[in-house]
Structure formats: C-alpha cells, structure tokens
Design goal:
Blueprint: H1 6-12, H2 22-30, H3 40-45, H4 47-66, H5 81-96, E1 103-107, H6 113-122, E2 125-130, H7 133-146, E3 152-156, E4 169-175, H8 184-194, E5 195-208, H9 217-230, H10 238-248, E6 251-257, H11 284-299, H12 307-326, E7 330-339
Parallel strand pairs: 1-2, 1-4, 2-3, 4-5
Antiparallel strand pairs: 5-7, 6-7
C-alpha cells in the first residue's frame, strides 16, 4: 500500500540522499533548468544525475498525492482518477496482447504500480527497469506486500544502455518514462534491440503537440515549467517521437494522442479550480495543506531542509501541466504501438 501519512512523506523526502544533503541536492537539481540559468545541453549531458536527484527528491510527494502509479490517464465522466489510471494500464496490456507465460519489460517503472496492476491483469511476468535505487527498494517492498515477488522483479540500470541480451522480451512498454531520455532515438534503439523480432513496444509519451509554437514566449514558459517540475532534459514533439521510432527500425502499427478523446480533461486533478473528495490531496486546498504541513515538518526538523523547495518546484510543474493541457500544446499520453519486424 502507498505511504500515505505526513511522516511517511517527511521521512521519504530525499530518498537515498543523506538528509543533511537534501537542500544541496535541490539546488543542484534546480540549476539544471532554465528557470535557474540552466540549459538543455547541460541537462542532456547530466541526465542520469538530474533524473536520479529528481526522483530521490520527489517520489515521496508522488506517492503521498498520487498513489503507486505516477501517471495521467484519459477519463470518462463518472470515473474516478484511480479507476481511470487502472483502465489506462489495462489498455496498454490489451494492446500488447499480454498473457501468462510472456516475459515483459517495463521501461522506467517507478515504484512499480503499473507493473503490479498489469501483472495481475494479464498474468504475464514483468521486469521493471529503473535507475533509481530508492524507487527500486520501495518497489520491492510493495511487490512483496502484493504477493507478486515471483512474477515481478526489478533491475537497476540506465535505459540508454540496458543490461539485457538481444531479443530478450516478448513485449516492452513505457508509461510516461522515456521522456527522461536525453536522446529518444538512442533509447528506442535499445528497446528495439532487447525486443524479440515480431513483437511489440507500446508507450505513453510526454510530448509537445502540433499546437506548440517554439517562438511563443508563453508556450516556452509552460514547457520550461513542466521540464523543471518533472526532471526532463527536453520535451519532444509527437512528430519527433514518431520519426525516432521509424529510424530505430520499428513499424508503427498505430498512434494517437489519447488526450484528444478524453471526456474529462486529463489535467483536471491538478486544476486548482476543480474540487474532488476522492482526490482531495490534489485540489487547491489539499495542496495548500500539504505545503503548510511540509513547511511545519521542515521547521521542526522532521523533514530535511529543502523539502519545501521540492514542494515548490512540484507546484510549478502542476501549473505548467495545467496550462499545457488547457492550451493543448502538451500531452502526457501520446500513445503508439510499434512492431519489431521479423
């Protein structure tokens, strides 16, 4: 089960970082980004350090506010956020035709919420690839609690150089994870290499849409906020992702921005104008309570120095995501299904 208490949040901030070093880690992380004078090339060159710092700092906030699955989902009217997240995961499993006996890879698996749900749904055996030690440790705890330690496992590695032989997996998927790659073509080539011929790779990608105008200052501000608050070197366009898939050798079966058909906006849980009892911690009032609580816990030294700054850049991310969604310049659910030829 998710760590849902205030003290769980406080003690989790910083992950594997020494608690005395959290404030310094926050400063180093912030300095990678445009808001603090950083640039894209520096983020790409140091992506592993940047992304690891991000998830050490942010994971306990994610689990506190979002649960075990750190991703968005299209939503039907009357459907709860949790229900939509599970359905989004099931959709991916169905597109890949997952079933008992298949060996599957989850690229950038977080603490394993999706892989556990997909393993229960499909009965497939799933390996979660993650380069963050804190998230892997937490994921193993949750696998054991769920009784899935035999069918689900984790491997600590960089998805730009995966430690698997060629043609290992029957299916591979990524949920809002390969957006952290400094080079999407290099990432897709590694996935292609590890996938068996004739099998499929499916993903939900974070992308700028065709409505994004790189010469528009407001659009660039929104993009920078999303990058800062989510540990991203850069956000690619849907066309860039599609081209990278083809250059990597994949045949694209079908692709679509699933945000376009969502009856309920995907960003609604983060919209401060929206109130929900079931997602209370994500509402404006819920987030105000969380910020106040984090400040208090940091003041009394139960949370490490720098915790409030983590809360602040995550707030900035939420603002950017909502603006990106409203302007339709950003999507967290550009879906594609691609096949490795025989």
């Amino acid at each position: 089960m998710s760590k849902s208490g205030a003290l769980d949040l406080a003690f989790g901030v910083g992950g594997r970082i020494d608690k005395k070093e959290v404030k310094s880690a926050v400063e180093q992380y912030e300095n990678y980004h445009v808001y603090f004078g950083g640039d894209e090339e520096t983020r790409k060159a140091n992506y592993s350090d940047m992304v690891n710092k991000y998830y050490d700092l942010a994971t306990s906030f994610y689990e506190f506010g979002w649960g075990e699955s750190f991703h968005f989902a299209p939503r039907w009217k009357g459907e709860s956020l949790k229900e939509s997240i599970k359905r989004h995961e099931h959709f991916l499993a169905l597109q890949l035709g997952l079933k008992r006996g298949m060996k599957v890879l989850d690229v950038g698996c977080g603490i394993g919420g999706p892989l556990r749900e997909i393993a229960r749904f499909s009965l497939a055996s799933i390996t979660g690839l993650n380069n963050n030690e804190y998230q892997i440790t937490r994921g193993k705890e949750l696998n054991q609690l769920a009784g899935l330690s035999e069918s689900c496992n984790f491997v600590k590695a960089d998805f730009m150089k995966m430690p698997f032989p060629d043609n290992t997996f029957d299916a591979i998927y990524a949920i809002e994870a390969t957006c952290h790659a400094p080079d999407v073509l290099g990432c897709y080539k590694e996935i292609y290499r590890a996938l068996k011929p004739g099998q499929c790779f499916a993903a939900y990608e974070w992308c700028m849409t065709d409505h994004f105008d790189p010469t528009n200052e407001s659009h660039q501000k929104t993009k920078a906020e999303v990058e800062l608050g989510n540990g991203l070197p850069d956000i690619r366009t849907t066309k860039q992702c599609l081209e990278a898939l083809r250059l990597a050798g994949f045949e694209v079966v079908w692709e679509k921005d699933l945000a376009l058909d969502s009856p309920v906006p995907w960003y609604l849980p983060l919209d401060t104008r929206h109130f929900s009892i079931t997602s209370f911690r994500l509402t404006a009032f819920g987030r105000f309570i969380t910020r106040t609580m984090v400040k208090t816990l940091e003041f009394v030294r139960l949370a490490p120095a720098g915790s409030d700054r983590v809360s602040s850049f995550l707030e900035k991310a939420a603002e950017g995501l909502v603006e990106g969604g409203r302007k339709e310049i950003f999507t967290p659910m550009y879906f594609f299904l691609a096949r490795k030829p025989l």
